[in-house]
Amino acid sequence: MTGMVNTREKMLEKTTVPISKVENVLDYLLYSLSLLYIAVCPYTKVEESFNLQAIHDLLHHGADVDQYDHHTFPGVVPRTFLGPLCVAMISFPLTSMVTLLGGSKFIHQFIVRAVLACLVLGSFRVYRNAVRNRFGTQVSIWLTLLTLSQFHFMFYSSRPLPNIMALVPVLLSLAFWLNSNTTMFIFTAASSILIFRGELAMFLGAILLMELLVGKVSLLRVLVVGLVSLLVWIPLTVAVDSFFWGRLLWPEAEVMYFNVVLNKSSDWGVQPLLWYFYSALPRALGSSLLLLPLAPILDRRTIILLFPCITFISLYSLLPHKELRFIIYTFPVLNTAAGATAARLWINRSKSSLSRLISLALLGHLVLNLLASSTLLYVSSLNYPGGQAIRTLHQLEVSTTPHLSVHLDVLACQTGVTRFTQEVPDWVYDKTEDLSDEELGRFSHLVVAGQHRYTLHLKHFLKTHKFIGQVDSFSGIRFNYTNFPPVEVESKPALYIL
Fold this sequence. Notes:
The chain has 498 residues and is α/β, with parallel strands linked by helices. The chain has helices at 2-40, 49-60, 82-100, 106-135, 137-149, 152-156, 162-178, 182-196, 200-213, 219-245, 251-261, 275-285, 295-298, 303-316, 331-347, 353-381, 385-397, 410-414, 437-440, 456-464; strands at residues 405-408, 428-430, 445-449, 469-479, 487-497.
């Protein structure tokens, strides 16, 4: 037995350097891929509006809170400023340098999104290191490979959504859990629940319940650390957010009351009960989903990974309004379980001809995921006509018209227009809704939605304004088996620039 242990230790010593190099390459790919996603899809949507506008205002208005966007467009529920504060503080040196060099304000949006991506991926690396300590190096490598090949986690990692702000402390808390540091797990998990997303109590609470049942943590410690967490995180968010919102406020408490007690989230759409299982997870994990059923069979340790994820998704399915990003916290954990399956199959690849075929299928499924991710990335790039429209307007008019007024309609503001994209200080950018045709006619330029430039809706404006541009957006996918590839992405007119 001792000889076997010594032999294994020698093998590990021999593989330490190459394994380290592999992890370094994978880290480089993680950050590079996130930057590629930002470059291909630089714009944001209305769900990201509060955090991105808050970061802009912190960088450009500082303590002049009266100039902040949330006073004009507060949103349905208030959100915390703590996430935007962290991103803005880290971004400030870089955005200041860009400003001094005369760079466009739109570059600031690239910077703040890149900073957020680095925070998320840095937390992911901490989590991955904990996976390596608990499950082994092979599992951690496969975890990274699966994450790189899939679309949604990497795509969302730079998007300033409340869920992504919460993802940073969630990943750190999961790392503490795998490293058996229960105290820090509870304390860090509490920050993500009390400050960012209250529903995480179901996910992280399921993990804590497991730890209590197996005796890894006492009820007394849970109560003590929980009380300390309440005394730290609630006063912090109340103090910071009350200052910025101008009233006594605990944002996440209001959000939970709105979504859970009043059940108002269903006003934004309702999905079937099992939607997360048959739609969201297959899209998020891709073909790697096929590895999950084998995980508890090939590696029983993965049961502790699957239990909190299935519990959280099942409980969250009871709420009628569902979005893929609501369960994004489970993707790294599910990929860890899938990675354990992949690692076991890969280690046994030389045992038989069947094992070799399975190992080839493992590599093939990564290629399949990458092809799907590439398609989704291209489709996503067509979903931001508002951002493309305001960019086009700047390119057409900035050198010829130093002063102009432009009205941006609802679709434009929902699909890419932010304060970062309002690049010209001397221009007037107006987002007022429900203006009459006469009021809209007073603007020198209009960005308006329409399906055709000669539709009845646009007819009045064509009498007062000149058509100067059109922006298309994604409309669907069509299969044409006479071509290669047999998939065609279709687009349609979305916004007109007058």
